[in-house]
Design goal:
Blueprint: E1 2-6, H1 10-20, E2 29-33, H2 43-60, H3 68-76, H4 86-89, H5 94-98
Parallel strand pairs: 1-2
Helix pairs in contact: 1-2
Length: 113
């Protein structure tokens, strides 16, 4: 799996999200991109927000299900309460997709070996 995102999100993807999926580090790559220096993007503010909001929240709630901030974000991103077809089409990972913790998913996954 290769994730392409802003460099300041590296820790969240490489450590927190990958760990929550129990995905092997040897099969994971992160390509970090920086916003152009000439852009109006406030990198310092984005880095602060990533640390204070995203990283801290996912450290407490790896699947974004039960902390108020992450649950609200999840709900806001799905205003029509649509569901994905993945639990039906990817039955091997259905228990993971339905897991909300607390703690890491305890079951076996296809990439667990």
């Amino acid at each position: 799996v290769t994730v392409v995102s802003f460099t300041f999100k590296r820790r969240r993807f490489e450590d927190l999200h990958r760990d929550a999926l129990s995905f092997p580090q040897s099969h994971f790559a992160f390509i970090g991109l920086q916003p152009p220096a000439w852009s109006r993007f406030d990198l310092a503010e984005a880095e602060r927000g990533e640390r204070e909001n995203a990283v801290r929240s996912f450290e407490q709630d790896p699947y974004g299900c039960y902390t108020p901030a992450l649950a609200a974000k999840r709900s806001a991103r799905n205003p029509f309460r649509r569901t994905t077809p993945y639990p039906l089409s990817c039955t091997d990972i259905r228990p993971l997709l339905e897991w909300c913790g607390p703690g890491f998913f305890p079951g076996k996954l296809p990439w667990s070996g």
